[in-house]
Fold:
Amino acid sequence: MQVSGKVLVCDSIDQAGIDSMKRAGLSVDYKPEIKPAELVSSVKDYEVIVVRSRTKVTKEVIDATARAKIIARVGVGLDNVDVKAAEAKNIRVINAPEAASIAVAELAIGLMISLARSIPRADSETKKGNWIKKELMGTQLSGKYLGIVGVGNIGRNIGRMAKALRMNLIGYDPYPINREYISETGMIVTDLNTLLESADFVTCHVPSTPETNHMFNSERFAKMKPTAYLVNTSRGEIIDENALYEALKNNKIAGAALDVFEVEPPTNKQLTSLPNLICTPHVGAQTREAQELASTVIAEKIIQILRGVI
Structure:
């Protein structure tokens, strides 16, 4: 069954999703570089607004809508969408949390291995002609305790990959963790402070909320082992970057890897210049497979909502 309506795509998304919406009968305007002022002035003409992480769908944008039925985020989080303002106007807000879970999990594992074996430094120094083999004494992941903070889709996938590397799992989540998953992986479920005191590696997978803002602060870093590593591929706001800088500089923890930052691109040069910090530019979901899947999943959800199926 064909559907009708106008769709505004505000960020770069995979062509597969655009093609799916067009085949279903939707008119799609693709404006991946649209500026906030233009968005506010033009959004009244659209039934569907599609974004990734660049575009902020603020209350001002939502108040300017006249026909909007759906705001769709091609990705996991919804922190760039004013969900309450949308709900007040009866606009459905949807995302595709399932699409990026494997890609983000693989990056987190890759960052853990990079920390454990100093891969970025080894690469850089070797290319400079410096043979620093004796300085690169690493550690194995096998047998270590991995603390997973937030055991949702991504956290569970990381746990399964880590089990294949013969790591032991510790999990913390304010919501109940799937019992079958606990049985499958042998995960030890505990409170956050116990996890931090016990884990050799800590990986974070929580949304950005008032409750999670700076949940990793000086007090929490003080609870971690001095040999522990921290990985964050979720949201930058959950880490107090100044506290992380002090922890890394003073060897309170061994190292950290960040794919996300409080401000993006990061402006905390003091932090990003540290030798025991690995940085990547928010590329957790940046694989061809994840982007195609996220785009097609969102497109299908939009079509089904407009058909009245879901």
